[in-house]
């Protein structure tokens, strides 16, 4: 189940680094643009009573060029609607199911048969998330259930000969970090050390990624007088670039600093074997009076600059320049039933009627929302899908032992 609110993210770090689809980027080109090997995805949340049916969502996802979709459940209507589209799907097991999954391997096997196997190969399900932000609920039952539930799910995939095609992982709130500044000093919370070590060993053995939900917006919202907005929105000037005093690496945006803080926290035993991916990031287009920075302009800048950076730069983060960063933006739609502050209901790139939540400028998107067919290359604009290659795996770790 989709977490009802991200505003509970706490910042327990020395610096406010704790706490895609990257739609709002308008490609206005007169020449050509280098194509990098990246994959961008969209979080498809459904805490709303006014969303279009899944069959009507398919053209929207295609219009933005997304190659991956992440669900907060395993909604059969969505999985059936996206059959034969080639789009990769991540499905999620709700936190409430973890204790039973941890105890009952047969339950894991039955879940895979019901929610994954029957849709293959027509719906391209490639990942199963075991819960969402489990470790930061500070619930001992959930925490102790996470690793065995992941093991049982992977064993179920092995039994069905699906483990080579479907990953098992979980998504973490950045509040699992005790320290995130500077990035080279990143460390996990000591009370979570044993559990995270088990999970990292699981990732290293199975080749699955370590997922983080990273929201620089929360750092800015929490300390707007201390956090530079340009640095958060991927448009830092030279004087605003962060230089890590220990590694001497230069950071011109907060998201990359957050990712590298996680790599540092992993330590040398794991950060050469396990890839960090961003399972959620985004920016709200509307907020309450005290939600500083939640505007359409900033949402457009955050998502637009991120997509531009990922699409044009053939590099990863400063600490892992050879590893392409795989990112999912939150979220596809504004969700009117989400509790919490106004921002929680305004992360969407689209309104429920299929029109952009703010100016997006991509011809194919506008064409779909207008009920017409979109064409690439109209008026010098190149649609998103023309920009992007496809993330193919852990090329940056070629030759590294996963044992």
Automatic annotation (TrEMBL):
UniProt KW Ribonucleoprotein keyword: no
Catalytic activity: Hydrolysis of (1->3)-beta-D-glucosidic linkages in (1->3)-beta-D-glucans
Membrane-spanning parts: 20-42
E.C. number: 3.2.1.39
Pfam family, one: Glyco_hydro_17
Metal-binding is among the record's keywords: no
One GO CC term on file: endoplasmic reticulum
GO molecular function, one term: glucan endo-1,3-beta-D-glucosidase activity
GO annotation, biological process: carbohydrate metabolic process; cell communication
InterPro entries, per the entry: GH, Glyco_hydro_17, Glyco_hydro_17_plant
Alphabetical list of SUPFAM superfamilies matching this protein: (Trans)glycosidases (SSF51445)
Family: Belongs to the glycosyl hydrolase 17 family.
Name the UniProt record assigns to this protein: glucan endo-1,3-beta-D-glucosidase
UniProt source species: Chenopodium quinoa (Quinoa)
